[in-house]
Each structure stands twice: as structure tokens, then as C-alpha cells.
Amino acid sequence: MNIKKSMLGMAVLTIAGLGGWSTISASANSTIFNTGQAALDGAPQGVDLQNGLDANYFTIDKSVDSATGNNAAELVKAGSPAGTGNSAIQISQAGVQDSWGTIWSTDESFDLSKSETASMWIYASGENTANVGDGMAFVLQNGGTDAYSGPGQSMGVWGVANQYFNNTNPASSAIQNSWALEFDTFPNNEMPQRGTYWGSLIGWTNSSYDFADSDPSSYDISGPADTPSSQSKITDTHIASNYPGDTDTYTGTSVVGKGKIKNPLTGNMINGSGTFYYYNLQHEGLLDEGATGGIGKLSDHRWHHITVTYTPPTTSGGKGSMTYTYNDKNPDTGLPQKSTDYATVPIDLSEFNLSSGQTKVRWGFTGSTGLYSENNLVVFDQIPGEAQTAASATMTTKDNAGDYTNDVSDGDSVSGDSDVKLTYTLERTGGDEDWKSVNGDLTIPDDIDVTSGSIAYPDASYTDSNDNKVDVSKIEAPTSAGDGQKLSVPLADSGLTLSGTQKATVTLYGKVKDVASTSDVSEASQTSYFVGSNATSTAKTPSFTITKKVNPALAMALDEDSSTLAVNAGSSDDATVVGVAVPSDTTMNNDDITLHPTINGEAQDTVDLNDVTNGIMYGFKYPIANSKLTAGDNTVSFYATDTAGDKSATVSTTVTAGTVGFGHTSGDLVFEPTTLTGSGSILVDRSDDWSLNVDDSQTKNSTWAVTANTDGMYLNGTATSTPLDGALVYTDKAGTTTTLNSSDSPVIASGTSDGTASSTNIAADWTADTGIRLKVNSGAVEGAYSGTINWSFVNSVE
């Protein structure tokens, strides 16, 4: 926004100690593909865009009025881990300079009145060079399929500055009525360089610039739009968003000086003087993807996953929001993984210039290359406007009663010759369309002999020619150890279609092979795929170790009701697990039995049963120090051996180490831009709704409280710290107002745990008269201010 006289600029608070803007190298160890063809051959499984969807789902206009040459975008074949069809969108190719590419949904299929999700894999890298550019963008726009802005740093969607440094409006050349999420592999951060004093920079004194030979437009800027002095260069590959067709997205600066300009007749650079203009592009929801050896995490020759989730407005005329999360799936397995590399930005529907009753817009990708080039590839595993889906896999073995109740988790041991059941569940969780033509491509652990299988459909209307049986005779042996057995499972004659929240299951029965007594066998987790024409989901079996067949002469059981399985992480309370290990030879004593405990897959010291007895023959009460538990759920397993050489089955339970802390937050916390009155003080309300989620998994009746303090708000862009004439204040429901400062830490929220995992937004019930607000006194000067709130938790754990 532009600062006006007597206007206080946008105030931004940074949350100290909270997640949400940090990055992780979630895919640091994933497969590297040094060429575009190798990346396509090894692409993650996605939707087959060429065959799975209707032929006219995408439109690629080979030429548009605003571009020279032909559209480089195309649908190309990609490798398929599932052995089914797979394809990618290719926007540009390494080695092809000055190219452009656009691909659009033929129909307006992204509904801004509903929740929508786009889930995709992206690959943006050169070939054996660090000089890559310029990137690509995921775009929502209310226009036609011929939308394109310009080459180079615009990536085909942003506005284009005048190449002769003349005054222009970049927004006018951008794709209109749009929102763009850029994947920028070439930071354009050349600010005009300070040089010999010749004139003066308008609005400043004693400053001038000499321009370098390059275009002075520095698109990649982080900082408030209305305060150029507070802006900073973005020096790394990055992900960010904004509205390309909005003039507020660009900040123009005029400079009176001398420098190199381009001769419009010859194209040569010549000396010139006068008024020059350069422009910055404001980046919202910036994810700095850092450089490693000159190649950022966007362009590191790896596939990366990003999920884009849209939430519609909750009130008429309100704003929606868009959350994009990077590196949230493993590219080698296709399975979800934790990521803190995300941002949430507001979505103003007025930016799309929707007609009355219109709720849907077009979506697609744009991209461009300049002097540098790269391979820009996209594989969708969930298409916006289509189905939202999920899949999972479980493994269970029989208990002593012959029922499949023993769940196998990652790292567990399974006795050889055990009866085993593999259950694969696929379901439609939401979206605008059915999950269509779904079939299964299963990968089964090497050392499970499958004997039968069946398919359970959502209702009786689903049948197949095999009477819902899986043809296990078609299982293909592993090509090499650890690769798993392959089995294609047609789920219906033409593939299964799931509507609403329907789900289906594929169940396989068999036995785990036995092993020699001297050598356990490790089984890797295996990934299976459920591939439909418009969405793909993955499921993973657990990794496990096969041990020598258990002798039932030594039996084990746990008494969870008598155990202490929930404690608070970091407290002085220890967990205990109560159970029995009973030999068939009743002449044995507790001294003849040894416990073999494991915590989270890590073997602990063995103990004689007599050392941890609970006073009952063959009974034990095993203590677990709080320091050995990680926050959250912990898997604790036992097996026993006796002096006769018998070994029991492994039994497991879960011990929860509860925590309390901040979960998802709003990131930067912003107050409304405010016009000063010149007299008295005013209270400034928060801009949009703040999200401060407290995640609590402590034991029942544990208490917690959130306190806050701050060193104050300071004017951005000044050499010395200039404090705001005002303060942050907190008003509770009773109307009591407390000033936040460095010495006092008032309680902002408190609660009592109910013993279950819960998440509470402590800012949800703040009104215009309560919560944290900004008090501004009459002596405040215009500008943009920022500061830091320091949050602390006080709970039952010191």
C-alpha cells in the first residue's frame, strides 16, 4: 500500500519461537535426476493426463497475440512406478532459450465458493549447470486460454517493465483478474547501484544512482510495498504469490540520474541521463528455498511435492485463504511426510472480477526462459476441481485366539510362519468429481506368501467378474531382493468409481516365511498405488523383521488397564507397563525368564523378570524413564526368553508423552493500516483473523497458560531504532486491558487438558474490543512498524 500523509503504515508482528515459516530439506536424500529425460523416466506416480481425463480437459494455445514464437507447453509421457499410465506437463526445456509456455484448464473448474485442493510434483532444474531460469507459476485466472504476459522474469504471468526504463504500469501487461503462485529459480534482485552523485533520487536527498548495463527492474523483493527503504533483496530460489493484474503488487521508483540505456533504434547500450524508472514485485507468503552450492532447493535436480489448499470465505464479501505446503511428500515413495515449509495467504475474490453468480475460474501453469533455461515439469496426483482421495495399508497377525488383532508397526518383529493379513483401504474424501476408473497396483513384502484375497466394495451394486476375489496367481516375484512382489488388482471391469465418502478395501491373506534361527530377515516397507483417471493415492506397508518361529510354550500378555501409558513429556513422571510372561514349564521361576524390551524400535537392556516383578509369579511391572520417551506416541514392545530356549511372541503397546505448544499459526500478524487523528490515542484492530493454535496432548487435568511480552514496535527502514508512540495491549473478556511490555507477561489464554489430543485457536473468540490490539498515541509518525511478540507456555511441566 502507498503511505499517505497522516497515515500509519501496516504494522507487522513476527511470532518468536513459532513454526510456519522455517524450511526443511525434506527431500535432501531423494533421487537426483540430472537431465529432463531422466526426471521424466523416474517421475513419481500421478494422474495420466493424456489418457485418464477427457481429451479436452486442457487447452494449449500454440500461439497468442502477446507472444512471439510457439507455445512450448505440452503433455508428455512419464515413467510409472505403479506400472500404469503416467504423464507430465512440460512448460520448458533445458537448452531452449527465450521460450514461453502456457497450459490452461479448458473449463473454469476451480470453484472459489468451495474448498479446493491441487496436489502436484514439480521438477525445475537445468542440465549440469547452476545457471537456470526463469521458473514457472501455478495460476488462477478469470479469462481465456490465450492468457500470457511476457518473457523472462515475468514467467508469463507477472507484468513486464519497460525495457528502456520508461514510466509504465507493469500490472497492465500482466494476466488480468488472476492470482499466481510462482516457483522462481532465478532471483532477479539487481537494484540500481549507488554511484557518482549527479542528481538526486526523488523524495530523498544527496543520493543518486548509476545504472548497470542490465535491466534495473528488481522484481524479487521482500518487504512492505509502501516503504522501499524497508525492502530487501530475495537472493535465493523461492516460492511466493500475489495478484499479477493489481497495481498494488508493484512498487515503482523514479530516479533522476545518468546511466546506460538501450538505443531504441540499434538496441545498443548508450550513455543517457534523465528520469529512470524501476519496479519491484511484492512477494506474499514467501518461502525462501535457500541455495546450496549455487543451486536452490527448487532447482536441485530432484522432484518436490507441493499441496495447494484453498478455503473459501466464511462470510459474504469476506476473504478466502490459500495454504501452500512444500516438500510434504517423499518423491521416492509418494507417501506423506511432515513439512514445516508452508505459508497461508488471504485470497480476495474481488481480484478476479467475477460476474454476478460466477464462482469458478480457470487454472493452469505458465513459464518462460530467457538467457538461462531449465526443465519445468509438473505431475499431478490430485487435480483441482476433481476428486480428493486417500489410501492406507495395515498389516496384522493372528492372536492366540486366532483373530487378526496384532497390529504390525514400523520396526516390529514378526515370528516366522505367522498368519498375516494385509488390508489396503482406498477412499474418496471430497472434491467436486467422483474418483473415476480406479485400479490397484500393489507391492507386497518379499517374504509373505499370499494365499488368497478379496475386495470389499462400498455397497452391493459393485461386483466384478471374479466374485470380488483377488487373483493371487498373478503375483510376480521380486526382480531383486527388497523390490517386493507385484500384483495388479483390477477393482472393477472398467475400474472402480467412488462417490461421496465411499471407500473400498483390498484384503490379502497369507503367511510370513520362517527363517533360520541364527539370522533374522529385515523386510522393507513397500508402496502400493491406487490410480484413477483424475487422482492417485499411495499406501505403505510397515517395515518389519522376521524372527524364528515363536514357541507357544512361552506366552506373553500386557495389562494396559494396570499400566501407566500416558505421562507428560519432560515431567518427573515415568511410565510403567504391566504384563506377564508365562512358561509352559511351571517349575520355572521368575529368575528363569528374561524380558527383551524395545522403545520406538531401539532395543533396551534385557532384564530378569524377577528384577521387575510386580509381586505376582511371572508378572512384571516394567518402568520407562520419561527421558526415554519422545513427545507424542511411543511404541513399546516386549518379547521374552526362558532358560529352556523358548521365545515368546512380541507384544506391543503405545505410551503417550503429552505436550502443549503452538501448532499452526498465522505467521506474520498484521494490524489494519490506520489514519492518525492528531489528537488522543486510538486502538487499532487486527487485520483479518489471527490463528494461534495451541496443540494439547497432556494428561487429564494438566493445566497450561500462554503469556506474552514484547520490546515494542519500531519504525522500519531507519538506521536507529525509532519506537512507535504507542504499545501493544491485551483486553480480556471482562474488559480488563493490560499493556504488553518487556517486564510484564500477562496471561493471554489458559486451559485444562481433558486427556485427549486437541487443538484450540486461542484467538478465535477475540472481538473488535478484545484480544491483542495496537494502541497508537497522537505523537506517532507515519510509516510501517514491526516488532516481536515473545510467547511462553506455563504448564504442569516446568
Automatic annotation (TrEMBL):
Origin organism lineage: Bacteria, Bacillati, Bacillota, Bacilli, Lactobacillales
Region ranges (Disordered): 215-250
Compositionally biased intervals (Polar residues): 227-240
Signal peptide per UniProt: 1-28
Alphabetically ordered keywords of this record: Signal
Presence of keyword Transmembrane helix: no
Domain of life of the native organism: Bacteria
Record-given protein name: WxL domain-containing protein
